[in-house]
Amino acid sequence: MDITLEQPVRARLITADEQELPAPATLRYGSADPLAVHIDFPPEISLDGDGATWTFARTLLAEGLRAPAGSGDVHIWPCGPARTVLEFHSPHGLALLQFDSATLRRFLLRSYAVVAAGQEDVESAVDEGLSALFGSV
Known about the structure:
Elements: E1 4-14, E2 20-30, E3 36-41, E4 52-57, H1 58-66, E5 74-79, E6 83-90, E7 93-100, H2 101-114, H3 122-133
Antiparallel strand pairs: 1-2, 1-7, 2-3, 3-4, 5-6, 6-7
Helix pairs in contact: 1-2
């Protein structure tokens, strides 16, 4: 049985001139894709007006809550004791968002209740990903 967690969160988008704008989002985790965390942003705060979803490793979120982590399109680091910064890179630019660290930790702990850390069925996830990639699904 597939289980999906969804948790609305409030983020603060940090602009180029260092203003902080509210940015609603939804954290999502599913047992069908146990290695990944998703953050969904609504259309009203995306550049193209279609909304946006960022997907990255659950382990990256866990690491980024403790120390700077990530290479490539997603970087995460603690910003003092109460906030965590997520930095997203795309061909359209960069987005820098601050989240409440306690909220991210609670979500992470809830995800571990669905699929414990280290208990992800990696082989199954790889098979499903390859099947989707090559149209065998």
